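input
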Amino acid sequence: MPMCCMPGVAFVPALLVCWSSAAFIISYVIAVLAGHVEPFVPYISDTGTKPPESGVFGFMINISALLASITMYIRYLLIEKQNESSHFVRSSCNMFTLCVGLMGCTGMGIVATFQELAVPSVHDIGALVAFGSGVVYITLQSIISYKSCPRWNTYFVCHIRMAISVISCIAFIPMIVFASKISMTKIDWTPGEKDYTYHFMSAICEWTVAFGFIFFFLTFIRDFQ
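output
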């Protein structure tokens, strides 16, 4: 029996959601308690730059990337199986969506491995790939979900997925724009200093996109049952 049809496989996206949330929150708490970042809206990467939180962040984000890859592959198999009888999407489109998602997971691995202050250019490229590919992936999955209605998905779930995709897309653009206006690489931001407003707005958008991904994968749990 294909893995996508096995009962209990819903634990994979559930574990992804819980683990990724914990990765962000634990790293944030350690970084704040250690005095390495200001508690009010740091970049996600800022919370995983200095020891000891850097080790926790790198380990947990790499595991999140692996879990996301597994989730995306199971989703690919699930759609392929459903498509055998319904023919609601081209197999090539399904494969392209998977490849985009795996590219985003690779970007996550780069972010976790090459820290912000150590290798900023590589880190930034990884972040751009991770967030950009992630936004494209959830948008494509939202479209596929609509095509599979009403047999394989309810319109309510499709609306939720598309809403998350739209919000993530809207947040992604100012995240990049404001980040590009920041003239220095640092993690100890304080209100009132140069470029703080750009940092603040970009960080809010970054957290919005990141948790948009988490909430999107949360909607996969019922499908994987």
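quick obs: The CA atoms of residues 114 and 123 lie 5 Å apart.
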